[in-house]
Amino acid sequence: MAISSILVTLEQSKSLTKSMQQLDLLFRDKVNNLIGTTTGVQSSPSLAKSPVTSPNMNNSGGFNEPQVEISMETLREMTNQICCVEEGVKTLEPYSEKVKTKSKPKLLQYKEKLIKTLIGGKFISEMMESPEKKNIEACRELIELVQRIDSSNGVNTIFELYYEKNYKEIIEQQKKQQQFFNQILYILKQEDLIYRKLFQSFSSPDEIRTNVKVKLVEFCFKHKNCSLLQTEDLQQLVMNQYRSTKTFFKQLDDLSKSETIQKLLFEPYATLQAKYLSTQEKDYLLKQVRPHLSMSDNFVECIDEALNFLFTECENALERCITFTYGIESQSFIKVINQVFDDFGQSIKKTVSNEINKSLKNRKVPTLSEMASFSVKDRELIQNALKLFELVNDKDQGVKKKLEELEEKIKTKLLEVLKEVLAKNMAEYYVKIQTEQTFKQLSHFYNSLQETQFPIFSMASKSVDLNILQPSQELVKTTLVSYISTILSSVSTKYTSTNYYLSLQNSIGNVEYVDDIHLPDLEHSIHPSKYISQVGEYLIKLPEQLEILKNDDHVSLWIENICKETLILLSEAVSPPKNGEKHQIQQWNADVRYLKHILVDVLDYQEDTKKVLSVIGK
After folding, report:
1. CA 159, CA 41: separation in Å to the nearest integer?
2. Whole-model pTM?
3. Which of 148, 291, 333, 335 could form a disulfide with 321 if both were Cys (CB 3.0 to 4.6 A apart)?
4. Looking at the DSSP assignment, which residues form a beta bridge with residue 57?
């Protein structure tokens, strides 16, 4: 270094030492003499209620000194001196270790004390005056002084001290989200009126005004005493809390453009938005729907109400998915709906199985001399089974039709919202934070949804078939044939260990067994057996029991099904007396002719006579 430069540096070092000494004197003489003089600060009636905590802070930012009265002249002098010292420090720091290790840290301590304790204290005092007493010019000059001392953070520091003094307590008192939001809006409105006057002479008044308002919102969120995710009720969380947050966000007007504000409001939701479908939605839906399966003594009413509620809740879940994730998590949503239908379908199947067991339980097998009973309870079980069958199989209102309508509605709504998302027309926080890989997957899914034949509810449809439609058919069949099955049990070889016809007494000689479709004319004085008469009488009344069905095709279907089932049960229970005596064969033929008359002539069973008789006489 040239000698001239060394001399200049030495001269600057002396100057810095002198300036630092003067700064020491300022803080020792002018400030320390003021410590102990306190001034009570009254909050403005136009502002939110102020806490009583003193705003004076220690070097770490905590309040621990009484507020002091200090003149603007003294603050100007101290600011000038600090700026002078800072200029010297910046000049000599590269050349002097002493400046770097001693002078600079000491300067920073003075700067912090001047901003936080002295200027900050006076700023708070002036800002909290009533409107008629508020000295805007003084507040403005204090801001300018702080900008000279610390251009990057000084303004934010004194405003945070002011917020701490004036708003911390009232913000912490807000226990509910909407109260919290309303309080922020109220405070912003009050402060904006002040800021417009306060910053009007600054070079960028709108920018600095917006900045301190953002800091005010940040401060409020830092001290909020309510959770934005305070409920496990997804409907409450998404449709109330999240919507409320979005409404508040829009009410912030220009502040909503701030990434800081967006992050404050919506980052707490982001993790839940990505995971709620896989972790909560399925259980939440089932929790809403399952209780309806036991809300009535009539299981058909329960299933009807539960199914209606299921479809309604699926639509609510769609609205949650669109509102909460803008369709981004739609593939997870579809997976959940399929799982819900599968799980809930199994619950319905279990309910139907219980009804089937009721139909079979405690049905006593009558002896040959007894009449099988058909009670009011038996009829009620049949009627309920038929109601359920028609309920779930109705062409226009059945569960299959409703599932198809739900699928179409979901496809339409998802296509609408995904079109906007993929066009990147949404400024929503959750959309903005998605990766390009996510957008590629969404684009592929969007293209698939546009295909007419693209199924989204394959699993749900299969569950409806296996767990709802098939069990409903099984229930009808079981209840309708239960009485017939009970009657046939009284003559079944399985239960009696003998052939019913071969056990008939009062034989009058043997006759050759006639195993031919064209049975010879027999004596019509032979009446059908008691068991077959009971079966026939029950079958004759079958159309009457089916009158509850509104669909004629369903009536025809069940007449045909029960006729077939009767023949199957009869063929399993009894067999023709091929080696029997004459009266045994005659009784057999009489019973077969009687049954054929009921099935074909009365019930119009659409099988030819040969087939009907061959099933029994095989």
Report:
1. 16
2. 0.78
3. 333
4. 63
